[in-house]
Amino acid sequence: MSLPDVLVIGGGVIGCAAARELATRGASVGVVERGDPGQEASGAAAGMLTARAYAEPGEPLAELGRAAAELHPLLVDELRSETGVDPHYSRCGSLRVAGGPDDARAIAALAARQERAGWPVERVEGDRLADLAGVAVAGHGGPALAFPDEAVVDPRELVRALRLSAERRGVRFRTGVPATGLRVESGVCTGVLTPREHFAAGAVVDAAGSWAGLAGAGFAVPIAPARGQIVELDPGSARPARVIHRDHFYLAPREHGRLLAGATLEFVGYDKSVTASGVAGLIGKAVELVPALAGARFVGAWAGLRPASPDGLPILGATPLPGYFLAAGAFRNGILLAPAVARLIADAVLGPGPAAPAGIAPFMLARFLRGGEAGRDREFRFTAGNASW
Asked: With a threshold of 0.85, does the pTM exceed it?
């Protein structure tokens, strides 16, 4: 690989999207990927482009999610035209139903805040809920919320299309090559070290998912792997027409008539095991939410490692090491956020481009640093679970 302007660590959805965006803006780009592109969290994801079921208007992640959701239809059209790969984008809409009386009150309050912000949200209940869902849904009182513009996509095909599109823009991929260190000269990151060779670059973007920061920049990057198990069902006539959320559990319709039920949230290190308790719990929640799924056929189950930050927000942009940038910590939202994160990262590395989404400041690593300096031995508390790092 000749000297690129930018070297991206990680070939998941965010790494591929960032590489494509950087190349679109004229940069020479290389990607080093420890396995195959999309084989980790991106390939295990449910592919939901659902930003609003739990989103608070005005919060940085909610606004970034809205911006990203608006970019997806155009991105999918471009990818399909360029590569012939269909990411199966479907604007099916989504629903959030109450998990109990307290949740019903929280849903009603959230709807009021979203309505005041001008977000498209509809309160539904009774027969209207069943009509929108396409199946009978077991709620727990109070209105459900319907978000008509939300969508799903096939994440594996999306990553495949992003890679092909990036390659057509000159991006060079090296697979089966783990990053083991950063090349630093005179206090500036100038490339990536791997077991077989060293790659020089003008800048490095770390988009390695749950492995982000492990190349060793000399300061802590607070990312921990959060295992999520997912069950795939063949629901027959009981397949919901929309994504349905309840208590951070979801049912997501997929192409070919399948249905995904997910996902667990487990801080168990880099263990991607599928467990009996995980599968049983997900199937139980699915049947409780849509009783007709008791007759669904079990197709399979898998697990992925979602990259979690202590506050649940992505970690993006510049770091204390000049030339080293982060595109990490998307957690549950990597598929959704990818096109917006790609633009933010390209802005950070190359300078502001056209039609940039919301600013990067709330997502920068600096929010975790003491007095502007990175601590190697700091303990981070993860709000998404009871693990610490």
From this structure: yes
